[in-house]
Amino acid sequence: MGRSLVVNADDLGLHEDINCGIYMAHTQGIVTSASVVACGEAFGHAAAIMQECAELDVGVHLTLIEERPLCPPHEIPSLVGSNGRFLPSYRQFTARALMGYLTSSEIRRELAAQIERVIRTGRVPSHLDSHQHIHLLPPVWRVTKDLAREYGIRWIRVPHFGSLIRSQRSLIDPFFRLGLNVLRAATASLSNGPERPISTVGLHLSGRLDEAEMLRMISTLRPGISEIVTHPGIKTTSLNARYDWNYEWSAELAALTSPRIMSLLQSSDISLTRFSDC
Question: 3-277: what fold?
Answer without folding.
Answer: TIM Barrel (3.20.20)
